Amino acid sequence: MLDVDGLVYSFRNQSELPTPGTPYGGWESTELGGHFVGHYMSATAKMWASTNNDTVYKKMTAVVSALYDCQKKMGTGYLSAFPSELFDRFEQIQPVWAPYYTIHKIMAGLVDQYTFAGNTKALEMVVWMAEYFGNRVQNVIAKYSIERHWASLNEETGGMNDVLYRLYSITGNQKHLILAHLFDKPCFLGMLALQADSLSNFHSNTHIPIVIGAQMRYEVTGDPLYKDLSTFFMNIVNSSHCYATGGTSVSEFWRDPKRLADTLQTENEESCTTYNMLKVSRNLFRWTKDMAYADYYERALTNGVLGIQRGTEPGVMIYMLPLGPGVSKAHTYHGWGTPFNAFWCCYGTGIESFSKLGDSIYFEEEGSSPALYIIQYISSSLKWKSSQVGINQKVETPTSTDPYLRVTLVISADEATGKSSTLKLRIPFWTSLDGAKASLNDQELHIPAPGTFMSITKNWSSNDKIVLQFPMSLRTEAIKDDRREYASIKAILYGPYLLVGLSDGDWDLQTKNTHSLSDFIAPIPSSSYNSQLITLVQPTQNSTQVVIKDSKDTLTMDDFPGPGTKSTVHATFRLIDHSPNNASSTIIGKSVSLEPFDQPGKVVSHQGPNKGLVVVSNANSGRNSMFKFVPGLDGKPESVSLESAGSPGCYVGAVNGGVRLVCRAVGSGENGLVSFVLSGGLSEYHPMSFVAEGEKQNFLLQPLFGLRDESYTAYFNFGV
């Protein structure tokens, strides 16, 4: 989809090489230009490593080769899409947009191309870049002072320390180690070393990468201080600054600890921060095998990453994940980006996130008897080389009416190894032993408590099969806010999935006289209910229109909406069939009510002859909400009309942009006004859908990751 010439256009322009093609827009045409190309090299390297796709290999190799030519042409080791003058401004503490942020992305991309794809040209390039920037930093220190260098780091520098520690682990060059130290931000890491939660007002995505760099410092030097401070950092973010999604930040910054209730808005959870927090938790799990980090990874990946792309549309991503009442991914400061003219920071981390969905499912523990931790239940396959075992994992999609996560692991093995190994299977914290099952080749296994690992050691044979069943239940989590007035603000989760309620702003649940969530939340049988969803379509001479519910709960006509838009929700209704059980299976002759898709428990009702149709509570609707399908009065074979059950001879009709009960004599020229084509619903219930009783309305609950433009609330007020 992305063109090599377009990606490297600005690099070639800086090096005064010919520039075929067309440059990309958005942030790639600003002072931050080139950052996405760095992410692109990282993402393609990881994608190729897991797929061996020839197209990916050819394109990423072409990008590296083009950048190699650019660096050679400039002849200094410098490589970027912007002039080196930006670093003059950076070193003089003058306004400039984060040049080292971009350099980190380019260097990291080259390191990944070497590490995952074996491209030695990429290693040569990044070593030369390190030499160039090492000289620049040393010149600043010599000309001014070390304090001047530290002051310059108040600008966002990405993970320069991280990539330089990684480079040192490859080269063993002490210059790379020293330069990495010089990008450790001491004023921030020192605070963490003292175990002080003073994150308030720090820019989140400036500082999380510095912690990742500190983790690499621990890995290459063994200094336990950096392990300890990153552990402390993860603990305070997770306990005091995280939303139920696992994400953090509001308008890109941290606020006071345990003061999140009044931060719920459109600009929550910058996508880049989730990408980086996943790195922090992954490293901590590798070192400790602590289940808490695996649980966090599942939460943040499921709720904070999977939904940042608009459905399956390539190149359409969000910057922020809004969490306030009545918000929409489409209506934030940035909204959805575009494939060729956005390229925000979150586009770069976004493509990397999707390129490495499989990198934290399996973790190997080396030794005389190797062990494999399986910490994420995601359909996947693995060749476990050290144990000469293959694993194929298949996960069934959970549903609200069948509350279990079911996993099957099928083993393939080299029969000649004669070697035993251990599988360690995560028992998630959110499950329970009541209803949990595990078996090996149909033999039942003992399951330990949730929040631990189940170990199975054997000399594996081909077609060994492990079957797991984990009960899933609804639960709530209070928002991280220790003020009493916000104690009623909670999120609803189903297993690891955050459920949000479709809403234009209402968030009040009806919890009076209830003792458990099942008293006011019920599963929706999505497979049967989806077959009951319809949209009323009316083709006109100039356009195709649909019946839609507007914000005032009245019915109007509007243009046929695009997929995933808010209007698709409001143009979808569920047919509640009131016909006798032995009635015909065809739609003609059926008596029905129309329930708005996003307002379970309400129905469409008329207010009398020639008056508009509105949405009311089903309990108070009476016969005004019942309609009978009859053949379309326009005489077309595909048309239907809806006749009022309580007012025979009156029909639902489109009049002057509104929807009314038309009771006057319908002439031949007006028959089309009361005739519609019955289409399948433009929206559908997700398999994990529920209905929750609210004070003013009922809420359709669905997983956050599945939404596109719909309006929703991620937290609810349980205090009503």
TrEMBL record:
Transmembrane segments: none annotated. InterPro entries: 6-hairpin_glycosidase_sf, AbfB_ABD_sf, Beta-AFase-like_GH127_cat, Beta-AFase-like_GH127_middle. Residues 2-359 form the Non-reducing end beta-L-arabinofuranosidase-like GH127 catalytic domain. Pfam families: Beta-AFase-like_GH127_cat, Glyco_hydro127M. GO terms for molecular function: alpha-L-arabinofuranosidase activity. Residues 372-472 form the Non-reducing end beta-L-arabinofuranosidase-like GH127 middle domain. Signal peptide: none annotated. GO terms for biological process: L-arabinose metabolic process. This is Uncharacterized protein. The lineage of its organism: Eukaryota, Viridiplantae, Streptophyta, Embryophyta, Tracheophyta.
